[in-house]
Design a protein that fits this description.
The complex is a heterodimer of chains A (231) and B (376).
Chain A: E1 3-16, E2 19-32, E3 36-40, H1 47-54, E4 62-67, E5 70-71, H2 77-87, E6 88-91, H3 103-108, H4 118-131, H5 147-159, E7 165-169, H6 177-194, E8 197-201, H7 205-208, E9 213-218, E10 221-223
Parallel strand pairs in A: 3-8, 3-9, 6-7, 7-8
Antiparallel strand pairs in A: 1-2, 1-4, 4-5, 9-10
Helix pairs in contact in A: 4-5, 5-6
Chain B: H1 4-11, H2 15-48, E1 53-58, E2 64-65, H3 68-73, E3 78-90, E4 97-103, H4 106-110, H5 118-126, E5 130-134, H6 135-141, E6 148-153, E7 163-172, E8 182-186, H7 187-193, E9 200-201, E10 203-208, H8 214-224, E11 232-236, H9 237-248, H10 251-280, H11 282-291, H12 295-324, H13 329-332, H14 339-366, H15 369-373
Parallel strand pairs in B: 4-8, 5-7
Antiparallel strand pairs in B: 1-10, 1-11, 2-9, 3-4, 3-6, 3-10, 5-8, 6-7
Helix pairs in contact in B: 1-12, 2-10, 2-12, 2-14, 10-14, 12-14
The chains are: A alpha/beta (231), B alpha+beta (376).
Amino acid sequence: MTAAVSLRNVVKRYIRGKQSVEVLHHLDLEIPQGEFLALMGPSGSGKTTLLNLIGGLDRPTEGEIVVAGENIDRLSGGQLAKWRARHVGFIFQFYNLMPMLSAERNVELPLLLTNLSSAERKRNVAAALAIVGLDDRAKHKPSELSGGQQQRVAIARALVADPTLLVCDEPTGDLDRATAEEILGLLQVLNREQGKTIIMVTHDPLAAEYASRVLHVDKGQLVDAPVKSAA
Amino acid sequence: MKYLPLIWAGLWRKRLRTILTLLSIVVAFVLFGLLQGVDAGLAHISELQRLDRLFTMSKYGTALPIGYLSQVAAVPGVTLVAPQIQRAGYWREQKNGVGILATDERWFAAFPEATITKDQLETLKRTRTGAVINIACAELYGWKVGDRIPLVTTLAQKDGSKIWTFDILAVISMEGHESDRFIVANYSYLDEGRAEDKGTLANFVLRTDDPAHAVRIGQAIDALFVSSATPTRTFSEKFSGQSEQNATFNTTFFVKSVVGAAFFTLLSLTATTMMQSVRERTSEFAVLKTLGFSDAGVLAIVLAESTLLTVIGAVLGLTIAKFLMPLAKDTIGIAHIRPIVFVEGALAALLVALVSGALPALRAKRLSIVDALAGR
């Protein structure tokens, strides 16, 4: 199976005041296309940094990152923004929806960067909202939706431009157990039925059970973890 | 256009703050419209004043003999001369002021901007008590052609009466004088009817063959009468108009000072509002960048927000000023805002938008996605 994501000898250092702090140490990782990978680890272990590098939100200090066949550490800021729009869908812990925009306008945001006509954008938005089961809430603003519904809108926004991979940072961290399971079930369906490659950072071992592989990050390095068969 | 809902939503993130900022912009542009309107109106009147139209009056403020007229007309370069008697009067009540200008048909050649037909001029010449009225009198007092109007003046008739009756023959208008209340009557009617100072006049208006010769011609006229009992002073209309404005009030300086102060305050206010708004939405801009919006795209969104806010305020403010201006007509004599003021207003709005939006836009452009999402 081809690798959707490939990291070679990746180092990430941050400058904090006068100190240089190495957050990731010479990390290698291959994520095959269509995999649902969970990244686990304690706070400050570097898992979100790793996720940010894979999603093109940050650049490595050293090493090489290839995602969807593109060496993203060599892209300029503008090229990286375009690349993100085309290849990555992001899902955050706190949904990060635009509070003044309706659900459908929020979902439409990534499509504004494409050349699609207004009618095509509307069609795609409706399809994405239908996938997450919120087609009847298209006109609602985030404040009029529950936490679970807001996260569904965020998933629809992440899906609408048909990205190569979905990057999820604690997608269920702000939800109750029942709603969290709904969201995780939805991600699993997207992975299995639509072949989406999903990389999810989570603290929650129950959430990680929905993934096809779990990797543990500790002190900026990947530590061995048992490879699971698909749940 | 597809970004408009996003920009519009950002603008109304804090409804009350946006409304208050918008109100400030509206007030600033009402002020801008009214003051620039007055300034542009006065400048336009000054433009209309001509360098080749001269006035000759007594150096010491006394009346001039009518006999001077033929001598002035003979000065090389003078193409025509008309006598003028100006008196203040009123109709029925003192508040209904009317200026009375007594002259002859040559005056209309000196002031071609006065819209009178040949027939109307002929009728005026034939009708001793006739007068043409400026359009402001018709609008304000309801006078019409055929009316006979008595005006109380400071000029006594032979019988001691100061009431002069005029027959309205036509309604005229003069560019730059649309709101002035005056009538033009026959010199012969006032001169022959008055008790004293017959054969005199207040001043001459004359035209020259070339504006470049105005100074030389003026000096030649004054030289003619320098040793007489009534020496003269001749000057161009443009010079007279400007010195009159400058002597009473430096309007342009006043307008620029007030408008400048208002816009400086407006700039600080809008910039503060935009800065606050961007700071509050740091994570939202980070999300937009995450979704693939470029740095330049985010910068453009913030600038578009400040432009939209300022342009809406400017349009509302200038529209209100347009409707308020006619109410100020009696006080300042200018009834309409000239189109150039709206163009200047649009440019000022864009300038305020760009300057006030620049810093917040740069802040949004430069923000690091990772730091902003982490709340740093």
